[in-house]
Amino acid sequence: MIALDLISNDIPPLKPTDNGFVALEWMEEFKVSHLPVVNDNKKYLGLISEDDLLNIDIAEMTIGEYINTSKLVLPRHHIYKTQHIFEGIETIVNAELTVLPVIGDNDEFLGTISMFDIIKFFGRATAMEMPGSIITLEMNIRDYSMVEIAKIVESDDAKILASYLTSSIDTTKLEVTIKVNKTDITRILHTFSRYDYTVTASYNESEYYEDLKQRYEAFMRYLNT
Fold this sequence. Notes:
Helix content is 39%, strand content 24%. By secondary structure, it is α+β, with helices and mostly antiparallel strands.
């Protein structure tokens, strides 16, 4: 999935002629701490943060005046419309952003990707809305084979709906989390055990899915209010 597939126009950009009060009101309204600044030609100028605005007297000062007066250089964090969304997520995490501008040719501002959009993306990517079960395996990195894991799952006439890997740089261990499309995973767990896999956690739908789904939906409602 590329950035263009996840782009949103729900959060409007600021113009240099907008004042600090407008910026803070919009940040409060859209529950973000950053807003893009765009000129009349739709050229992306950079991101302004809530901290920037709270550190100055913004009574009558426009964004443009503030930039010129303080000689502030706005950070230009962004993602190009054709870049993969994972590159955007990396930028969001590293720069601790709440929104990431998406730009096209000649720095044309196209829209933003917000944390709300990212959460929705991961909700779909991890098949959260589909019933099933979660299994977490631990293994040495050299022993990892998704082909073999998939064969074990499919031996019980099941399918892997989603998977992700976690590992630390100071260990040779790898944690593999999969979601399968069955709620009764007893046979799958027995097969993993027979092949000497270490199962560190497993959750069927009744134990895990409904609670997770309710938390996810409640969080979505909170972000959407």
